[in-house]
Write the structure tokens for this entry.
Amino acid sequence: MTGENPALAARGVSKSFDGRSALKGVDFEVGPGEVVALIGPNGAGKTTLLSILAGIAEPDSGEVAGDGVAWVPQQAALYRRLSVQENLLLFARLQHDAGQTDENPSLMVKRMLDLTGLAERAADRVGTLSGGNQQRVNIAIGLMAGPSVLLLDEPSVGLDPAQRERLWGFVLDLVREGTAVAFSTHDIQEAERYAERIVAVAEGEGIFSGTADELRQAVEAGGARSEDLETSFLAFLRERGH
Ligand SMILES: Nc1ncnc2c1ncn2[C@@H]1O[C@H](COP(=O)(O)OP(=O)(O)O)[C@@H](O)[C@H]1O
Ligand SMILES: [Mg+2]
């Protein structure tokens, strides 16, 4: 994204935990309506970066600019014994009382049930839903404040391929309505399939930003030619000492 007005941007963001560096001067941006994948091995700093972008963690240095951001954590903070509708109403009231939205909570719940295709499951306990539908409830809560950027941390972990495809169908509908999305994944195929741009991090450093084709070219330029992008990317990481 080279536009001059990103919806969300991090510049030179660094963060340490107990003296150990988790992010080392990372730049990251999401353009209006753009879909960006954040890839990298476990421990690379993906969750740390997304949580800083979401404003729920403070960087030690660097800047974050942008507002209207919604954070969808990997672990849904849902009440499994309450119904879908009860969970949504609880969060709608909290957000309403916190001044994050003016919308009447009951109307908000109805709108979110329709938007997420969960109206038929409204009375079901969240704990009985599939992982994909639980993730929808989680996303619905993130959408309540009408964000311009949705940050999804490993949204498809634990979903089978069909559930994953349905979840992405839903997320891409939101994108068509104008919401930008940044998501983390360690699945490079998922990044290639759904993102317009890929950002790679390893050991807290930003090591690549571009399209999947550009990543393939970068990987091959390093001599790490292989049939599939994932194998090539691993070789690319090794070449850089990761
Ligand atoms: N709250 C925390 N306290 C201590 N260390 C943390 C904390 N959060 C993350 N880390 C460390 O920061 C590094 C990056 O973690 P994380 O951002 O979760 O990576 P990823 O999401 O890419 O797997 C890891 O070494 C991890 O152990
Ligand atoms: Mg993570």
